[in-house]
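QA checklist item 7 of 12: single-chain prediction sanity check.
[x] sequence parsed
[x] length recorded as 485
[x] structure emitted
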Amino acid sequence: MDISNQLSEIVGTANYSDDPASLRPYESDFSYTPAGAALCAVKPGSSEEVAAVIRLCNEHRIPVTPCSSKVHFYGASIPKEGGVVLDMSRMNRILEIDPDNRRVRFEAGVTWGQLTQELGAKGYRVIMPLTPPAERSVLTDFLEREEPVNQVYDYGEPLQAMEVVWPTGELFRTGSASVEGYPDSPSRGANPSGPGLDFYRFFQCAQGTMGVVTWTNLKMESIPRMDKVLFAPIEDLDAANDFLYRILPRRIGQEVLILNNVDLAALLAEEWPADFERLKEALPPWTLILVLSGLKRRPEEKLAYEEDFLKEVIKNEFSEMRLAENLPGFSGLRHKVLHLLRTPWPADRPHWKLRVKGGCQSLFFHTRPVNASYLISRVEEIAAYYGLLPDDLGVYIQPIEHNRACRPEISFFYDPKDPAEIDAVRALYREAAEELLKEGAVFTRPYGDLAPIVYERAATYAQQLRRVKKVFDPNHIMNPSTLCF
């Protein structure tokens, strides 16, 4: 029996395809990463089927590229060396909702639209990154360490125990999910760590090169009973960061973020492009968004305490800060923004980053908040050489863990049908990344063109990573040509 027939037998004929038309959607994503053509695609329906597919491919040294949803931005799910696309979208079951341990267990194909709807009906939510597409895999976003907009430390590590298929086809469970009797064991899989090594970190940002996560546990929270959305127009980023340094360690607020006028206009615009251009001109250079929330216990008192604290700090230390329930001239904004922060981006609309010109390449990194303004200005200077003014760039700054650090994200918009624009943005992206590395920025997610730049400067790290890869993937089948391998 040939490989095609064996794969078809594992997943069922309806879930196997080698038709060129059906394979075309896997060839590219929303990045400018060159297309790649797979030999076939399979859609397993269980962890056992995933294991059987990978075991067969490992035996015959066939490349395997995991793919979990319809929406990818970084080129990590493109089959660069052909082989088999392992499409996890059929594994889309929400397996458990556990209010006592504040966790939800679900499979790799569960989307943001699906999870938020089902949890919302029961009064719960998961802490989200900024406007994830409704059709994107939730598990993928957290494996890729997308930063949640909620800066409270408790949500900084939302992943719990998970199940993985190694590149050899063996099933493995991390943390407390590894104990006998799971999922009916007393541990309930709520702890991601140990026994021994913290393997759950091993698969984060690995882009499917170390194994395939089939399901995971994720922290969840009650939907707040009360919310108050506050806005502050910002002219000076350094002053805004000083303010956040003062309030966030006191655990004031839930969601908190800073957007420049370009990104906020793209998020808010209804009629395109008229609304976008109007908003971009009318909005302040930067906007601080801070959401105060009260959960189940004494929500009124919690909000009152936080508001009193903010008033006192502003009165005594930051008299220039204008924190209010609306931006001047934008009445009703709080309702729209809260909806944006708590629900995924609708599937029937192009993602806001793609609305500006059709394509977007985002450069994101970690730094100390005191350095954010300077590093952003360095990128703006480089962009000017490529004909892009600051008003052409989207910038989003996400505080992390009570402003211990932050993640600036700079978006370069381009026309995906214009090769000259793609080449210019690609060159800009590389030059900006190299400059940021020299200035001390930290890249924890080196995708595409960024990978060789980062790993060249971390040679010993890359060398050890290759050795680890060789141990767990001896035949080098898992998503080859990704990361530094």
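[x] summary fact logged: The chain has a mean pLDDT of 93.
[ ] second reviewer sign-off
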